[in-house]
Design brief:
282 residues, mainly alpha, Rhomboid-like fold, 2 domains, two-stranded antiparallel sheet
């Protein structure tokens, strides 16, 4: 299936058009970071770099309640060639990933890439305080592209999968050489998330699911319907001989005239029952 066959819904189409060119969500991400780079340059030119310290990520500050640093750290971008290359990677490869998955899933992927690094180092901040700033995610989006289209030819006909392996490997070796565990863990977290996200949506594995919580159904009373109490249990049948013995005791105490008409009828019925049983036995 051709990658362009996915453009059948609004999710897979451009957000807007500018002079005949399609504009995707990836382009808006680049615009935000480009504006942040210009703002950072202006602040540094005004020698007000202390103002930027309120935006950079600091695990110690986040643990003290400054939660905005989980998001604001990506807005501190000094002008550099590496920053320009990152923006080009988001435009080229992020656009293709968005085309394939749709806008909503693409933004979900980039949001996860953006947040996983600060969340990881916030969790590790109890052990080792960490700080960093700058736009993340460009390389991770390239890894997502290479996972989606591993045999796509790039510059000098190098396949995307081998280019991703080489670039990630070189950056990992550079981090090891500098003993930069922050860079190494951040690389593993962002690129690993991008790879796992694509493979999950390709059906390579399923995410674990918690068993559903079963709850007893609630009784509902329909309008105009009355709840009837359950019928009372019938009393256990009384032993007839016990009743006869009680009547005989009453005769012995107060005489036969003390019996009521109902009690006499019951006594006569018991006598007839005994005579009937005796005749059957004979």
């Amino acid at each position: 299936m051709n990658q362009y066959d996915f453009e059948t819904s609004a999710e897979h189409r451009p957000v807007a058009w500018w002079r005949g060119y399609p504009v995707y969500a990836a382009h808006f991400i680049v615009i935000v970071f480009a504006v942040s780079m210009l703002a950072t340059t202006a602040v540094l030119f005004a020698r007000a770099s202390r103002q930027l310290e309120w935006l950079v990520f600091s695990s110690t500050s986040v643990l003290q309640g400054q939660l905005w640093r989980l998001v604001s750290y990506g807005l501190v971008n000094e002008p550099s060639i590496s920053f320009a290359l990152d923006m080009l990677m988001i435009i080229w490869f992020g656009r293709e990933v968005e085309r394939h998955f749709g806008r909503q899933r693409f933004l979900l992927l980039y949001g996860g890439i953006y947040l996983i690094k600060p969340l990881l180092f916030t969790a590790l901040g109890w052990w080792r305080p960490t700080g960093f700033a700058g736009e993340p995610g460009a390389l991770a989006l390239f890894v997502a592209f290479a996972t989606l289209f591993p045999n796509a030819p790039l510059l000098f006909n190098i396949l995307a999968k081998w280019a991703a392996v080489v670039i990630v490997g070189i950056i990992a070796l550079m981090a090891l050489a500098e003993r930069s565990w922050v860079e190494l863990l951040g690389l593993a977290a962002t690129c690993g998330l991008a790879w796992a996200f694509v493979r999950h949506h390709q059906g390579a594995f399923e995410l674990p699911r918690l068993p559903p919580v079963r709850r007893a159904p609630k009784l509902r009373v329909l309008p105009g319907q009355k709840i009837r109490p359950p019928p009372a249990a019938a009393p256990p049948p009384e032993n007839p001989m016990t009743e006869v013995d009680a009547l005989l005791d009453k005769i012995a105490t107060s005489g036969i005239h003390s019996l009521t008409a109902q009690e006499r009828a019951r006594l006569e019925s018991a006598r007839a029952e005994l005579l009937k049983r005796g005749s059957v036995r004979k």
